[in-house]
């Protein structure tokens, strides 16, 4: 598939992402506008390696910018070895130009290698945002589970007949877990597809040096996804077991040291707590 068509299709698809998860991502509209300009001028937009490159040094590795080396000039006017620029900014440790500190959102390298670099950085931001969201949801699930269990104990202590409300709450928790599982699966699948396509578009000179880095990074992402799937699976099993025991009249007291939990999305549980406190008084 032509590079231009591939990039255009990817940009169109990425713009359809849920805006709730786009706050930490590079703005797709700005990226799309710049990529269009790059693709239109790509044929004539070739970096001229003048004699000054033979004397100038790369600010990252401090080696000479020779004619035989792939060189990239950023929009802020600084030149680097392309591999040095991608390695420096693509790993997430640096988010601006090493010389003038121009922010990543404004740092647009010229040439085809610059396009690849921009997409690589965007993928990393997408992954980090998805993982942060996943962790946040799980923490909220654990907190609300503890609240639900405390209320359930009060219901049993004062024999409040609100079984239907609790079972309805538990059912909503299952739907929340299933939605989180679908989100994690879709995120992992999309990241793998985009990373695979970008790896194929890299210049052979860069591909050889970046291959090992890509493999290591993707294995890390896969491990994170597997850990998340295990956690959600445990949460789901715990909720189902809790519902079965609750329906059968077997009350299981909460384990305060438990590392798993589930989220309460329906406010009925707050009403239950109010009723229990009223009974105590």
TrEMBL record:
Record-linked PROSITE patterns: ZF_RING_2
Domain of life: Eukaryota
Zinc recorded as keyword: yes
Annotated RING-type domain residues: 58-101
Keywords: Metal-binding, Zinc, Zinc-finger
Molecular function GO labels: zinc ion binding
Keyword Zinc appears in the UniProt entry: yes
InterPro entries (alphabetical): Znf_RING, Znf_RING/FYVE/PHD
Name the record gives this protein: RING-type domain-containing protein
Organism: Guillardia theta (strain CCMP2712)
Phylogenetic lineage: Eukaryota, Cryptophyceae, Pyrenomonadales, Geminigeraceae, Guillardia
